[in-house]
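Question thread 4412

I'm putting together a teaching handout and wanted feedback from people who do this every day. The idea is simple: show students a protein as raw sequence, then show them the structure tokens that encode its fold, then repeat with a second protein so they can compare. Below is the first pair exactly as I plan to print it.
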Amino acid sequence: MPAPIRLRELIRTIRTARTQAEEREMIQKECAAIRSSFREEDNTYRCRNVAKLLYMHMLGYPAHFGQLECLKLIASQKFTDKRIGYLGAMLLLDERQDVHLLMTNCIKNDLNHSTQYVQGLALCTLGCMGSSEMCRDLAGEVEKLLKTSNSYLRKKAALCAVHVIRKVPELMEMFLPATKNLLSEKNHGVLHTSVVLLTEMCERSPDMLSHFRKNEKLVPQLVRILKNLIMSGYSPEHDVSGISDPFLQVRILRLLRILGKSDDDSSEAMNDILAQVATNTETSKNVGNAILYETVLTIMDIKSESGLRVLAINILGRFLLNNDKNIRYVALTSLLKTVQTDHNAVQRHRSTIVDCLKDLDVSIKRRAMELSFALVNGNNIRGMMKELLYFLDSCDPEFKADCASGVFLAAEKYAPSKRWHIDTIMRVLTTAGSYVRDDSVPNLIQLITNSVEMHAYTVQRLYKALLDDISQQPLVQVASWCIGEYGDLLVSGQCEEEEPIQVTEDEVLDVLEGLLVSNLSTPVTRGYSLTAIMKLSTRFSGVNRIKKVVSIYGSSIDVELQQRAVEYNALFKKYDHMRPALLERMPIMEKTATNGPTEIVQTNGETEPSVVEPKHLPPVTQPANQANDLLDLLGGNDVVPVIQTTMPTKPASAGGELLDLLGDLSLSGGPATAPASSVPTSQPSFLLDGLSSQPLFNDIAAAAIPPMTAYNKNGLKIDFTFERANPNPNVAVITIHASNSTEADMTEFVFQAAVPKTFQLQLLSPSSNVVPALNQGTVTQVIRVLNPQKQQLRMRIKLTYTLKGSPVQDLAEVNNFPAQSWQ
């Protein structure tokens, strides 16, 4: 058999390939030749073949068939064979393959070899891919080599020990005696790997960290080494851009950071050396900047002196002036982390940070924006907002939403006056109204309502803004609301803060009617506009024109607009005597949180519950948007949401599909209550009153309440049976029985329910989430309903399931409950 081609020739041949297919053909041909050579046990060219195989592996082609050949090379007595064999083992083997265990004995023999280079190969391989079993077997040999006087072996043994500790942390104490003399070594390679080993031990074991702080006095040794590096003259062996061994300096600074964290004595011992590093390191080269950055991180993490922290922040301030974008980004990120603890020191660099808002790099602009908002306080609010609003005008669309939210929060927290607050938010809505959060409209409406003395000024400003631009929908909605509330102030010209404008009633109505017909207006905006026109019927004299506009929209194709118009027409006809009282000016509004996670914000005479996720609730198995499905159905103000105790796992779906599920159940009552928690200890025991010391279903007395069929459609039938809880007669216990008459199982079955707010409801976990086909079984679930006022029970239900791979959803209203169930 002819001798195989050399690796160099193979590389040259592959590089001549013009297409991927041609390259694959060459690789396949060579792999076939290599396989033939392996089968013939050709020891002469095994090393060459494995080397070529490794090159193919680096190109991304399969080379697993050479694993055993690597083991044969490792067992060879020739150094050249061992070198390729160990390299192949590191590339082709890992601890997931049992073949690597066959190497253990070879590595052990080579660790005790008389040649240091063979020992080095074995240490490199063990440190690269040794499994936990191999590490346990060979840790003793590594520890012996760590104590040897040969610096070449000590540095490799230290890195190998790091790998052993990561794989088998309990072997850490074995290496403790060997670490005592490591830092006294003159060789920088040994020092570097020793610091890496000590860092690993300190990070993984608090006991080791305490031992090195107190018993070994590690900090003074590290300070001495670092001082020698700073003060030493030029050393060509370790010099990088005029700095002596920056890699070792960075490693020592990281270890000092770990040792000094939350420890006064250690921090005190390293304060001076950190100051020396910070002042003596050259900043003209990137190497010096890397050391300074590590120094800053160390100063910020340990219990350093205040002057040293100011020095560190000044270093970051100098980084902001650097031409390198990466250094500026690192500086902004670091300042953002320290701004809470050293606010005044960071404030000194405010102008430089604001200048970064004009940077072309989007990452730097985002960090600068976040840091600018963190620097805002009561003293600089006007200047900072001026800069940030200028940034909002000119920034890319991707920044506008976050910037607008930041301006809103800062203005709410530090506003020097209500007029300034209103002007600032209106400026945001004018320039970036399409990007603001959904809650900005009710928040601004609340702010305007509570600023009684600013009503005339605000409505005049908003009216002017409407004349200029109606494309920003949040601004239009706020303006419509304010004109409806304070239109009489606009027409009367009572504004004292600025020169009043002369506006007639017809001009105001023309603007609002224009919003109703504009293509730019969303359905929500049209609803605001129609309600504003209706409110003006009690503030303006032109009632006939308003009646005509309202009656036109009684036949609108928009259901929401049509419903509003029909109800307003009814006010004009049947209840005209009540209209002035119903449409009178809104009182001062307050955000009030009920005894749960629902926050009530009143806007435009309506109540909008803003759901906040309760932090005390236990996690459920379903996705987050499914858990909030039932909360989303609370679009109206007359229902009580329910959170199930447990829910079967269900694929994610749209969150808002139950919006206004109970919108037509308009019953009287107090404010909407919070979701009923499934944890009795974290909520008032409204349903389990008197049952806290008893099993869940005890003392349920059967009553003569007839069952009923609540739903029967598409093969799915839902029956309700009723019982009455003895300790609390106001609690009705409803058990649902879901059956399936189709030929296929209904999987991922979920039953959800909601009731008017005069009731309270608890939905317990179902018996299963699969409804068997052909009525071969039922799924049961218990509902508890508290009805303290003995009102007629009404319920909306939502059913979700999967049938033959297709998801099915349906809504239904249940109004025919037996009288015995609620009386």
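The second pair follows. I'd like the answer to focus on this one:
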Amino acid sequence: MFQFLTSLYRKYTSDWDIGSEGMDNPGYRTGSFDGLHNACDDDDDDEMVDIAGATLDFSTADDDPPLSSGGYEKYSGSSRAAGMNGSAPTRLVDPLEDPLPGVGTYEDFNTIDWVREKSKDRDRHREIANKSRQSTWALLRSISDAFSGWLLMLLVGLKTGAIAGGIDIAAHWLTDMKEGVCLIGFWFNHEHCCWTSNETTFQERDRCPQWQSWAELITGTSEGAFAYIVNYLMYLFWALLFAFLAVSLVRAFAPYACGSGIPEIKTILSGFIIRGYLGKWTLIIKTITLVLAVSSGLSLGKEGPLVHVACCCANILCHRFAKYRKNEAKRREVLSAAAAVGVSVAFGAPIGGVLFSLEEVSYYFPLKTLWRSFFAALVAAFTLRSINPFGNSRLVLFYVEFHAPWHLVELGPFILLGIFGGLWGAMFIKANIYWCKIRKSTCLGRYPVTEVLVVTALTGLLAYPNSYTRMSGPELISELFNDCSLLDSSQLCGYSPVTNTTEAGVGNTLGDRPAGPGLYTALWQLALALVFKMLITVITFGMKVPSGLFIPSMAVGAIAGRLLGVGMEQLAYYHHDWVIFKGWCSPGADCITPGLYAMVGAAACLGGVTRMTVSLVVIMFELTGGLEYIVPLMAATMTSKWVADAFGREGIYEAHIRLNGYPFLEPKEEFEHNSLAVDVMRPRRADPSLAVLTQDGMTVGEVEALVESTDYSGFPVVVSAESQRLVGFVLRRDLLISIDNARKRQEGVVSASQVVFTDHAPSLPADAPPPLRLRGIVDLSPFTVTDHTPMDITVDIFRKLGLRQCLVTHNGRLLGIITKKDILKHMAQIANRDPDSILFN
């Protein structure tokens, strides 16, 4: 039934959407449509984007075709002259009555017009509603159209959940392969290999004859210095191999697959187009290389890249539904929901994923998108739970459950963790951006493979001797979150035995105990791991492999929290008669839970780096399943944000957006300068006058000469050059397509033909060539502000309406134009930054 309704929907909408009117993409200097695919190198709006150091041109990427409404080829000949050989139709071509393919579409590295796209969608809805009353077929089509959004969300959730499950299973297997192999099946990881073994012991539950280390396979023994060296070298070999494969695949097949992807996703959701960034090749390569990068042991995570993977799935599936394929604003609603799906499968937190999309990445998030995001996140979480990649019936490896309550006195240490998280976040952002600038400005950026291999070798050499840096990030966090019980044999639970039976605890829980030699050893290793993680993550994030930041940040905070938690536990044990402990911490009671401190520290550090607040608290709550720990998490997260904001209001993703020069107007950033629109608009006082079109006083040749002599993305239409009274705005791309199409389809269009932007063509001499009517491509309601409009209001208009440009008038006369790029340059000048870094660095 679904297929029937979908096919019915496509059949009835294919002709309507061909003629829908929309905004195009600016920035072409050629005079024919054939030149639209080859932008001029110095064009302001069509520069090649430098994403993670790779200059790319994906204008022909197949994931997002520039022309959404059929091919232009059915109208075209070999040249313009081919349309003048007498075989073309003789009637006048009017884009309003006979819409042209390509008009209203977007080219690469351009911003969409949200207002025009929403208008197109309203017109489409209105037409569907009117026709639904006329026949049963039209009513079914209306029902299919309403249901298609939910069907798309279902498919996005299913596909993303399945891919995330495969990534988890493959990454776990390859991570264990660095240390050994399963004899009964090489495809089993360490844990699954020993599941069916009856020869495991309680103290060495991970040791079984079916699993052998590389030293056992090569030398026959697992003891001694030589066996240690063999395991060390094999660990380095596999890490370097995985890292080399990851960076090589990214470089050869999908350069857009590197990095986290969240800065670019935020930019795309704000209305910018990066063609190929959400394509199927990017999806395939990112999925494979994410497994390899995580398995190599580098200090990175898969959570951020999973958001990119989910958005790729959504973008590809959007092309199955004409409603989303032909409307960029509607597609971005789906991508916002996909971002929620990515976090849902990364942390097993559907609600947290929806809030993450709302708080962190989405630019436009209507209530309808909220509902569909929740549904898609639910489907994805259910799919991942059905796969059960970790074999623990949980969606993440580090799911924990705490039962001990916390006391008001512990808010002090929790706030200390928040301060640490804020300081770490601010320090990390500044250090990482500084390192990325070095990478961009030196020869280091020209050798991405060498950089990845060197960092991998350094990471492996320093990580292997320490068991807490050798294990994967999720395993480390799981170890640190763990609450010690009677059955735990972890080094972190190496307490001295308690001889007094009144202090031994009850059931499977243990009271506070003195630290033993094993715990002291673990604490020293954790301290070294903390320093290592803090330093190595700075140079790892931003390399040319898929790299997320959630897990490394949480690992740093979890280590710091565990160290503080153990310190508080020992303080309470030895000084339970102090005022701060008296009355609630009696001898032998389970007063302090070090695992809770690790969890609060993880949230604090992640919040300091990303500046997440509400969504982060909900994600951590969903990880623990305990409502009673919301207050500690809120206190630490809010403190972390306040402290980090004192050193700079940008999170790591906003900092990377600014580093790469993406055209992104940050909604959270306030504009406090008292400048006016006339101070920002172009042309400036020393610039040439504004290039305009008159509504009925220019010929085709004059229009083409104006287009070819400028690189503007559009032109205001005025009544006359003398009056400068505004009529509307026409975009460069629409203008070129319409003129080129008229030369091919309308007989007699020559350079002397008059171009008319009015409803009725003026009277012409009998021997004059036929006029070219282009009223249909003019935006008759462009947004305008007066020259004395404060820039803070103008910036808010651009942010909230998603404008590409705004015209400036004085008493109805056109003075100039303000583009999104002009605003970004002006804001950069105010902040003492290089304005030329905008679009693109």
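Top answer:
Good format. For the second protein you could add a caption like this: The two ends are 50 Å apart (CA to CA). The chain is about 50% helix and 5% strand.
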